[in-house]
Amino acid sequence: MTICVYSRSNAFSQHIGLAVTGRPVVYQDTLLGPASDASPCIDIIHASSFSPEAVAAFLKTASSGDRRLAIADDIPSATALLGYTQGGALAYCNSYMASDHFRQLFALLDNGASWYPPVMLTEIFNLARKNMASDQPLSPLFDALTDRERQVALRVAEGKSNKEVAVDFNITVRTVKAHLSNIYEKLQVKDRVALLIYLQQNGIH
After folding, report:
1. Do residues 68 and 130 share a domain?
2. CA-to-CA distance for 124 and 158, rounded, in angstroms?
3. Which residues contact 111 (CB under 8 A, 6 or more apart)?
4. Where is the signal peptide (predicted)?
């Protein structure tokens, strides 16, 4: 799958070049349009090279096609991750993380999966919980979950890992994963971050 790199930083472009092996790569120093018409493809945007408004506008136009969008940030933050994810990005990372991590990110995006820094999960969940309202009615989709699925979803919203959730309910990690799979399907979300955004938007906590 073609990788399109959007950056005005030679250092970042060179860093990505070292991480990419056996793939066509296209470089572009603007966000005025796609660097390639290849479809599907992976777009990785060096957010620190552009204004937040320019990145948001690009995400809005590019997310409509079969383009797997990733954001690389020199100074990652939970707030930025949440915003870019809501804008359609499937991945968010440190601009200069290890090449092996970039290869993992690309492999996941190849399959339409997402990637984000595990160490930021708790911060993201806590940030979203602060913005959750307590007086909104339950979403019909959330109301369709079983009692245990609701419990698991809310534990995940607290930033707990699958292992911690398993301990809380005296079940196996495999069972937690099965519950999460059902939750994602019923709520029509892809992953933990998407689940968090869903809960935040519906005032569920």
Report:
1. no
2. 10
3. none
4. none
Number of domains in the chain: 2
DSSP letter (8 states) at residue 138: P
CATH at 101: 3.40.50.2300
Look at residue 132 and tell me whether its pLDDT is greater than 60.
Answer: no
Under a CB-based contact definition with an 8 Å cutoff, are residues 2 and 20 in contact? no
Q: Which of 90, 115, 88 is nearest to 104 (CA)?
A: 115
| DSSP secondary structure code for residue 94 in this structure | E
Confidence of residue 63 (pLDDT cuts 50, 70, 90): low
Q: Is the pLDDT reported for residue 133 higher than 50? A: no
Sheet holding 41-46, edge to edge: 25-28, 2-6, 41-46, 67-73, 91-94
Domain finish residue from 53, 87, 116: 116
| CATH number of the domain within which 133 lies | 1.10.10.10
Task: Give the three-state DSSP class for 56.
Answer: helix
